[in-house]
Design brief:
The protein is an alpha+beta fold. Among the domains are: 45-97, no CATH class; 104-388 and 506-548, D-amino Acid Aminotransferase, Chain A, domain 1, CATH 3.30.470.20. Helix content is 36%, strand content 14%. Strands 9, 10, 11, 12, 13, 14, 15 and 16 form an eight-stranded antiparallel β-sheet that branches. Helix 2 crosses helix 11 (368-384) and helix 9 (283-292) packs antiparallel against helix 10. The two termini are 30 Å apart. The structure holds adenosine-5'-diphosphate. Adenosine-5'-diphosphate binds at residues 131, 165, 167, 171-175, 177, 197, 199-200, 212, 258-260, 343, 345, 355-356, 548. Adenosine-5'-diphosphate is lined by residues 131, 165, 167, 171-175, 177, 197, 199-200, 212, 258-260, 343, 345, 355-356, 548. One of its GO terms (molecular function) is ATP binding. This is Tubulin-tyrosine ligase.
């Protein structure tokens, strides 16, 4: 854990006060202007001005981040709203913000439906975790035809028609959701897009109640993708018994069909019973409970949950990377990080389905379970970001070294008769200096070659240093991976997976790590890919963010 450190201004003030008035000048070593006065620890900071959740700051301070209100000089910024292009353009390479642009591709119901349906059509087995979904503005005819045909086929076998769930695209927390089985019951809304999804009619029940799981995933880099899944989460229970499932006489009972906390907390039957009882329990409890029934919850079921999370994100990774590169030409793909909340439900055969992905999962701490879970989650995230490696001075030192090397190289190239020693062995390409690596994380900033460092970062409108991606050698990636491995906490690295065969399979399927123009995802034509690109250009800014649980 990073220890809390005092701010530099406090140190300087203390230095002044501690200098005796008539001390021997030869022994006076710590005046405010002497080089040694710069020997102070740098403290990473967190800006939480734009979040309403106190738990973010608590977690940040818990791992040694200092709160700052500065709109420009911060190490980590957490905000409830989406990140704007302007914010990204002004970020320095040593800063981290908690959203990627273009996350609507995953987190808006209609975009998610289009992206995952495309994949499901192309890879029905691999993407069977995505229930059939229709975006009704464009797919109403297809939906009516499908539902009609299914109803006739089932009637021929003496079975009732299937049930569907309609959800407004731009709403959350169960607002505007309803169930229906007759396609004629669907009601379009002129104000927003509706998606209709096949209803999982036979979910796995615990104690007779329907429940879903909130699973947290963290993206720390989009290009190449670095993805982690948190081992702890929530199991959220409906507050009415599920009985034998949807029927005409219970289709409007939201506390039976919806597992949202925000819906069920209003019920008188809601029980705040702690981690292993009541209407909101921990994910661990649910998986271990399944273990106790012989279902291998913590093994096979957890593995398949991680798998569907990775597949969902990989579907949009090329687009995330492309939009990121457009919005942050100087960024290395790790300027942003994103905490995602996956809503996952198990059916009676224990198959997991993704219902929704939230890019602002609720951080409210209304129950005891929330409090412990969310503070721990945030602390783990901040630790994984390796904030002590984000020291601006280290980045500037690296850039200065690079500039010197470039200058030196060009002067030796221009004057071949120069007597100066060559910067590198004949025939070898001079290596750029590495970005501050994970190995630096606990190093102080007081090394001798830093004596002439400016005490403050350069003005924000100064040209940004070159992107670390261009200059980071593989060794730095290894160091970053080693740091991550040592600081995973409750996170598990899901991508890149340790098994190269999985990388190959998923990469081929989803166009991962492709560079250049937007890569078509599986089953998508180049024209569609270009269409997505155009759509995301318009949508990179200004997504409405709604907290979801
Ligand atoms: P919201 O963003 O409003 O929370 P969700 O898609 O998460 O919308 O749906 C809310 C709840 O409805 C889920 O938590 C789940 O309990 C239920 N639900 C949603 N889709 C389905 C589905 N296809 N099958 C069964 N239950 C569903």
């Amino acid at each position: 854990m990073i220890s809390a450190k005092r701010s530099s201004s406090t140190n300087l003030a203390a230095g002044n006060a501690a200098t005796p008035r008539h001390a021997d000048p030869s022994k006076r070593t710590a005046t405010p202007t002497s080089p040694s006065s710069r020997k102070r620890k740098w403290t990473p900071t967190i800006n939480v001005e734009n979040t309403k959740h106190a738990v973010v700051l608590r977690a940040g301070e818990g791992i040694g981040l200092a709160a700052t209100t500065s709109p420009t000089d911060w190490t980590i910024q957490w905000q409830d709203g989406v990140v704007t292009v302007d914010q990204l353009l002004h970020m320095r390479p040593w800063q981290r913000i908690n959203h990627f642009p273009a996350m609507h591709h995953l987190c808006h119901k209609d975009y998610l439906a289009r992206n995952l349906t495309k994949m499901r059509n192309e890879f029905p087995r691999e993407y069977a975790f995505w229930p059939r979904t229709w975006c009704m503005r464009t797919d109403a005819v297809a939906f009516t035809a499908y539902a009609g045909a299914r109803a006739r086929a089932r009637a021929a076998r003496g079975r009732p028609p299937r049930w569907y769930i309609a959800k407004p695209d731009s709403k959350s927390r169960g607002i505007g959701i309803y169930l229906f089985s007759d396609p004629a019951e669907f009601q379009a809304n002129p104000e927003y897009e509706m998606v209709v999804q096949q209803y999982i009619e036979r979910p796995l029940l615990i104690e007779g109640y329907k429940f879903d799981m909130r699973v947290y995933a963290l993206i720390t880099q989009c290009d190449p993708l670095r993805l982690f899944v948190y081992k702890e989460g929530l199991a959220r229970f409906a507050t009415e018994q599920y009985g034998s499932g949807p029927a005409l006489d219970n289709q409007s009972q939201i506390c039976m069909h919806l597992t949202n906390y925000s819906v069920n907390k209003r019920s008188t039957k809601f029980v705040d019973g702690g981690a292993d009882g009541g209407s909101k329990r921990t994910l661990t409890w649910a998986l271990e409970y399944l273990d106790s029934l012989g279902h291998d919850g913590t093994g096979a079921i957890w593995a398949s949950i991680k798998d569907i999370i990775a597949k969902s994100i990989l579907t949009v990774q090329p687009e995330l990377a492309r939009v990121f590169r457009t919005c942050a030409p100087n960024g290395d793909g790790s300027l942003c990080f994103e905490l995602l909340g996956f809503d996952v439900i198990l059916d009676h055969k224990l198959r997991p389905f993704v219902l929704e992905i939230n890019h602002s999962p609720s951080l409210s701490c209304e129950t005891a379970v929330d409090h412990t879970l969310k503070q721990g989650l945030l602390e783990n995230i901040f630790r994984l970001l390796n904030p002590t490696s984000l020291n601006p001075r280290k980045w500037m030192r690296r850039d200065r070294k690079q500039a010197k090397q470039r200058l030196y190289l060009s002067s030796t190239t221009a004057t071949p008769t120069s007597t100066a020693a060559p910067p590198a062995a004949p025939g070898s390409t001079p290596k750029p200096a590495a970005a501050p690596s994970a190995a630096d994380q606990d190093a102080d900033v007081e090394s001798a070659d830093e004596a002439d460092e400016p005490a403050t970062p350069p003005p924000r409108d100064a040209p940004s240093p070159p992107p670390p991606t261009d200059s980071t050698p593989a060794a730095d990636t290894d160091a970053a991976t080693a740091y991550e491995s040592a600081h995973l906490g409750l996170f598990e690295r899901v991508y890149p997976p340790s098994d190269p065969a999985t990388v190959e399979r998923r990469g081929r399927c989803c166009g991962v790590e492709s560079k250049g123009p937007v890569a078509p995802v599986c089953g998508e034509t180049a024209a569609n890919a270009a269409g997505r690109a155009a759509a995301s250009r318009g949508a990179a800014e200004g997504d409405a963010v709604d907290e979801r649980e």
